[in-house]
Design goal:
Layout lengths: L10 E9 L4 E10 L4 E5 L6 H8 L6 E6 L2 E2 L5 H7 E4 L11 H6 L14 H13 L15 H14 L4 E5 L7 H18 L2 E5 L3 H7 L2 E6 L2 E6 L1 H4 L2 H8 L3 E6 L2 E6 L3
Parallel strand pairs: 3-8, 3-9, 6-7, 7-8
Antiparallel strand pairs: 1-2, 1-4, 4-5, 9-10, 11-12
Helix pairs in contact: 4-5
The structure holds adenosine-5'-diphosphate and magnesium ion (MG).
């Protein structure tokens, strides 16, 4: 039961276990994301961040409880799940020869009947998203010819065209220079404010992760080892323990700044 006045979480994960092959990759993970919240999962390579996002996005079957807006994820059919959650993968496949418009239209696939064609409404959604992300001029361009930053905006456009309110972003800015990083993250934050999106992301740049997220979750060895406000998670001790990194953490305008220090 939910207490009166408290919203049902957009994402609720309880005691999630994932085993692929031998050892567990996620071992008893708990995670809650409130509607409209931005939560970023950080953690060293191989911690299980992408695996966690794949489960929440319905791309891997859960063992444990995973609810999206209160409904167990395995009870959502593909189309219903597509209305709730959209994923931008860590390195999305770029289909050779595909134009930007057709790629963004793939976001409508769950709503197009088998053997059917996209409707005028599907196309209207796609054009609206292209406009919003400043991509209208690229509609006819081959996706493979776009720069990294432009391409990342197109990946985002495909996810938004799906119309889901929960956006899963797996390292959305890893391939981008610092300017394009900020551009993409500001855009996501603006969409979050304008369209009421909920964001669950993973990110390697810890200072940037802390600047944009309401809360951080530190995953290491398949377990949540810390969670809370950026200044509670981005501490020299926690980063030394779980990343084996020597860093200084200083106060920044929008949260802690993590500076690597040479040994
Ligand atoms: P992260 O995104 O935090 O770097 P991943 O979730 O991609 O971590 O992977 C976590 C661990 O699970 C890694 O050790 C990885 O090798 C392993 N792993 C991921 N996918 C598979 C798979 N399909 N089969 C076996 N092991 C996998
Ligand atoms: Mg990953």
């Amino acid at each position: 039961m939910t207490a009166p006045g408290s919203a049902v979480p957009a994402v609720e994960v309880r005691d999630l276990w994932v085993r692929l092959g031998g050892a567990p990759i996620l071992a008893g993970v708990d995670l809650t994301v409130a509607p409209g919240e931005w939560v970023t999962v950080i953690g060293p390579n191989g911690a299980g961040k992408s695996t966690l996002l794949r489960v929440v996005g319905g791309l891997l079957p859960p063992s444990g409880e995973v609810r999206l807006h209160g409904t167990p994820i395995d009870r959502l059919r593909r189309r219903d799940r597509a209305r709730v959650v959209a994923t931008v993968a860590q390195s999305p496949v770029v289909p050779p020869g595909m134009a930007v418009l057709d790629y963004v239209l793939l976001g409508r696939t769950p709503f197009i009947p088998a053997l059917g064609r996209e409707s005028a409404a599907d196309l209207a959604v796609v054009h609206d998203v292209l406009d919003r992300l400043d991509l209208a001029g690229f509609a006819g361009r081959e996706l493979a010819t776009l720069s990294g930053g432009e391409r990342q905006r197109v990946f985002l456009a495909r996810a938004l065209a799906q119309g889901a309110t929960l956006l899963l972003l797996d390292e959305p800015t890893s391939a981008l220079d610092i300017g394009h990083q900020q551009e993409v993250l500001e855009l996501v934050d603006q969409l979050r404010a304008d369209a009421g999106l909920t964001v669950l992301a993973t990110m390697h740049d810890l200072s940037v992760a802390g600047e944009y997220a309401d809360r951080l979750v530190l995953l290491a060895g398949g377990k949540v080892v810390a969670a809370g406000k950026p200044r509670e998670v981005l501490t020299e001790e926690l980063l030394a323990t779980h990343y084996r990194a020597r860093v200084r953490v200083v106060d920044g305008e929008h949260g802690p700044i993590v500076v690597p220090v040479r040994r």
